[in-house]
Amino acid sequence: MRLFKNKSGGHEEVPSNVREPAVAGTFYPGDARKLGAMVDKHLASAPALPDLPGSPCAMICPHAGYAYSGPTAAANYKLLRPGQYARVVVLAPSHYALLQGASVGAFTAFRTPLGDVPVDTKATDALRVCKLVSDRSEPQAREHSLEVQLPFLQKTLGRFSLVPLVVGDATPQDRDTLAETLLPLWDERTLVVASSDFCHYGPSFDFEPFGRTDREHIAQLDREGIDRILALDADGFESYMARSRNTICGQAPIGVLLRLAKLRKSPPQPVLVAYALSGDIEQDYEHSVSYAAIAFCETGAPSPQAAMQTGLFSADEKRALLEIARRAIEQAVVKRARRPDVNTRCLAPRLMQPGAAFVTLTKDGELRGCIGTIEPDEPLALCVANNAVSAATGDPRFFPVGADELPRIHIEINVLSPAYRVRGIEEFVLGKHGVILEKHGRRALFLPEVMVEQRWTPEETLAHLCLKAGLPRDAWRSGCTLYCFGTEAFGEREM
Description:
There is one protein chain. This protein is an alpha+beta fold. It has three domains: 16-301, Protocatechuate 4,5-dioxygenase, Chain B (3-Layer(aba) Sandwich), CATH 3.40.830; 306-417, Hypothetical protein ph0010, domain 1 (Glycoprotein, Type 4 Pilin), CATH 3.30.700; 420-488, 2-Layer Sandwich (Dna Ligase, domain 1), CATH 3.30.1490. It has 16 helices and 23 strands. The strands form five sheets. Strands 4, 5, 6, 9, 10, 11, 12, 13 and 14 form a nine-stranded mixed beta sheet that branches.
C-alpha cells in the first residue's frame, strides 16, 4: 500500500507496484504532448556535440525544474541515441526521507506522462544482497531527482529498463561497497546516471560564503569540485566538499559513480559538456542554483593516471623525473629554497598529468629518507619535486640531508597506480602490489619492495602495517580496509 495525492489534494492509500509521478505539472508538464514538446525543444536547442573521446557510458545530470536545468540536462542526453542502452541505473540523492545507505524500493515500474518505465527487478534483487541496500519505497515515492531524468531518457533511448537507487547517508567505505555491488551490472548495454545539482547559493539555502556575490565566485567554487570529478578523484572530491561546504546535493551519488568508474578495467574519461546557473535566467546570483552536465566517455583504454603506471615511461621521461628530484633536493639543501622551482615548459605531457609517487633516498645502500603521496593531487613532475624535498629534509626518522652528503645520495622514484580496494589478504601478491591498511582513522602503507626486502609473509606484512599505523599487530584480522596498488620503480643507477 502506498500513499498518493488524490485530485482533491488529500492522500489515499492505493494498492500499486507502479510509482506514480510526483512532480509532473510542477517540475515539468503533466500533459504528455506538452512534455514531449518541451523535451524535444531542449534537445534541439542543445549545443553541437563536443569532440568526445568516446561514447558516454555514464553521466552526471541536473534535476531541477526543466525551465531551469532542462537545457543543461539536454546537452548530456543529446549524446544518446535510440536503443543505445537497454538498462539505466539512476543514482539519486534522498531529499525527503532519512535514509542510511541506499534503497531500490519495491516498485515494478515508474510512470511518467510519456508512459511506464519497467524496473529491472532481477537487478534490484541482486543489489538487495548488499546489506546497505533496502527495499524501502518511501525514499523514492516523492524523489524528484530520480523522476526528472526519466522523460529525457524516454525521448532519447526509447525503451529501457530502470534500476532506481536512491542514496542517503553513506560513508566513503559505504560508497566503496555500493560501487563494488553495482559493478557487475555496468555492462556495455547499461548507462549509469548520477543525479545532482551543484551550488545552491543564497539565504534560501543558508549558504552565503561570499555574502553578496556574482556568477564568477559561484562558478569558481563549482569548478574546483568539477575538476576533482574530471580527474576521477573520489577522495579529492569528498575532501573538497568537506573543505568548501559547497551545497552539491548529489554528493553521495557522485561519490558512488566516481568509485564505480575507478573499478572498471578501462576507466571512462569524464568531460564537462555544459554548465549553467539559474541566475543566468533570473539575473539574480544571490538566489541561484548551478547545473553541470558531465559525460563519462568510454575510451577502451586505461585512464591517464592508470596508463602512466603500466611500465610505459620512456627512458627520457624517467631521466627527466630523476633530474627534477635531484635539482629539487639541491635547491632545498644547498640554496635553502623553500619551494622547488620546476621548469614545466619542456616536460612531456604525461609528466604534467596528475600523479602520485614516492621518492626514496639511500646513502651507501642504507635508507636516508622516503616520503610520498597516495592520491594524484598535482602534476606528477611537481609531486616528485615536492616529495624529493620532503624526503631529504622532512622525514622525521632522519636528520636532514647535508650538502656534503649529496654526491653519495641515490634517488629512486616509485610512481603509483590508482589504489583499489581488496577483500582480504588473499588478493595481493608480495613483490607485485603495494598495500594500504586503514582502520579507526589510521592508515599505513608499504611499497612492493619492502615486503620482499624484509622477506615477510602476507600475514607478517599486515602485522607490520598495523604497527606502523599505531594499531595492535593483529588489528588486520577484523574491521580494517585494505587497498592494493602497483608501482613503476626506477632509480639513478639504472639510468
